């Protein structure tokens, strides 16, 4: 899978992609991350990429011409989708990460300042995408988040030891709790079941804990989760126990 990032700060990406799983994935040829300087697609003596907003206001806006030129040139006749990073866009989530990992290639356009000329989102970008309801100074951190999350779904990028299918959100629930050595730390113990050697018991405990965590931290996820009749029974029991604890 290939990512093409269009930015005015290409140097920002050097260190984030130079370590960990993403670096290994690049080295193994599983993913390609190409960072392009928007200024290379601007014309004129000053290679200007931004200008003052029509109608008058504070700040600067990215001009449409360099962005259209960059996307058209990088696409090279292919139909690779270009996504405009924007706080006004569709919310990026685990499902979208999984969906995008099936594309051979995506382009990510990073805005700055007051944003990007509206004609980019209306006539060039496949979609506007946001990584959350807050405003960043630029699209670069959002591009890093997206490359990282999408790459985890590219086959071979994440090893068995970090199963993507088991992660939070992938099965509609949060992940179960994890413990490692020491077995006891400052009087805080690891649940005994994890030493039982009984894989069936451990797996039911993990499912129960994932359900409990989701119920507690993200009850909104349960409505869409893929729940078995057993899961539903467990949730009912949890609710009943909680009510009993509240009733004097
Ligand atoms: N004036 C814009 C607005 O209120 O919608 C915000 C512009 S923001 C300061 C500059 C750039 O950062 C945007 O063009 C976008 O590329 C990026 N950006 C900011 N917040 C983002 C978010 N939550 N998700 C994705 N990109 C974001």
Describe this structure in words.
By secondary structure, the chain is of the alpha/beta class. The chain has 2 domains: 150 residues, SPOUT methyltransferase, trefoil knot domain (Alpha/beta knot), CATH 3.40.1280.10; 63 residues, tRNA(m1g37)methyltransferase, domain 2 (Trp Operon Repressor, Chain A, Orthogonal Bundle), CATH 1.10.1270. The chain contains 9 helices and 9 strands. The strands form 3 sheets. Strands 2-1-6-5-7 form a 5-stranded parallel β-sheet, with helices on both faces. Strands 3-4 form a two-stranded antiparallel ribbon. A two-stranded antiparallel sheet has the order 8-9. α4 packs across α6 and α7 packs across α9. It is elongated. The termini are far apart. The mean pLDDT is 95. It binds S-adenosylmethionine.
In angstroms, what separates the terminal alpha carbons? Answer: 58 Å
The rough form would be described as elongated
Task: Write the element-wise H/E pattern from the N-terminal end onward.
Answer: EHHEEEHEHEHEHEEHHH
Which fold name is given in CATH as the topology of the largest domain? Alpha/beta knot
State the share of residues found in helices, binned by percent: 25-40%
Read across the widest sheet, the strand sequence of neighbours is 2-1-6-5-7
Q: Identify the CATH homologous superfamily of the largest domain.
A: SPOUT methyltransferase, trefoil knot domain
Largest sheet: 5 strands, parallel
Number of domains: 2
Estimate the strand proportion.
Answer: 15-25%
Using only C-alpha atoms, the radius of gyration works out to 23 Å
The strand count comes to 9
Number of helices: 9
Structure class: alpha/beta
